[in-house]
Amino acid sequence: MVDLGFLGEEPVPGLPAEVTPRRFLAALLEPQLQYGPEERDVALIRVEVAGLVGGQRRRLVLQVLDLRDLETGLLAMNRTVGYTASIVARMIGRGEIEARGLLSPTRDIPYEPFVQALAERGIVVSCEWS
Fold first, then answer.
1. How far apart are CA 77 and CA 67, in angstroms?
2. Dist CA 118 CA 127 (whole Å)
3. Do 53 and 29 reside in the same domain of the chain?
4. Are the C-beta atoms of 56 and 91 separated by less than 8 Å?
5. What does the alpha-carbon distance between residue 42 and residue 49 come to, in Å, rounded to a whole number?
6. 76 and 99: one domain?
7. Which region, left, alpha or beta, applies to residue 57 given φ > 0 means left and ψ of -120 to 50 means alpha?
8. CA-wise closest residue to 5 among 27, 32, 25
9. Of 116, 118, 52, whose CA–CA distance to 85 is shortest?
10. Could you give the number of structural domains in the chain?
11. H or E element in which residue 68 lies
């Protein structure tokens, strides 16, 4: 789309009105790309880690599968991104996270309370060892 110029901000020459490709594309596509009342988006997050645990080769798979909430209208992306950010902000506010600056989810965010807070919002993190 970018290479074809569809996201350009300069008006297209030769048209009777000042129209940019980006504004035209948004006006054309936006009404067609809305979810219907019963349609859902899906967010899938999967993390696979392999290594040695106690000298034995082990593999851990963490996974989240979330769908649009038809009651609230919140999309899976709204839920997985927004809830995550709000949970961490609340943890910082309550002093559960004391580190400042750019944080690492694996080092700085307390896993169990975080996963529990997600579960309270209907987002379940599955964990499978093999």
1. 8
2. 14
3. no
4. no
5. 23
6. yes
7. beta
8. 25
9. 118
10. 2
11. none
Whole-model pTM: value is 0.76
Q: What confidence tens digit (pLDDT) does each residue in 80-115 have?
A: 999 999 999 999 999 999 999 998 988 999 999 999
Structure tokens at 43: 């967010």
Q: Which pLDDT tens digit goes with each residue over 3-46? A: 999 999 999 999 999 999 999 999 999 999 999 999 999 999 99
Tokens at residue 9, please? 């901000």
**How many residues comprise the chain?**
130
Residues 75 and 120 in one domain: yes
- CA 88 to CA 124: how far, in whole Å? 16
Amino acid at 122: G
What domain range includes position 4? 1-34
Tokens 């082990």 belong to which residue?
58
Tokens representing 34 are: 């809305």
Q: By three-state DSSP, how is residue 101 classified?
A: coil
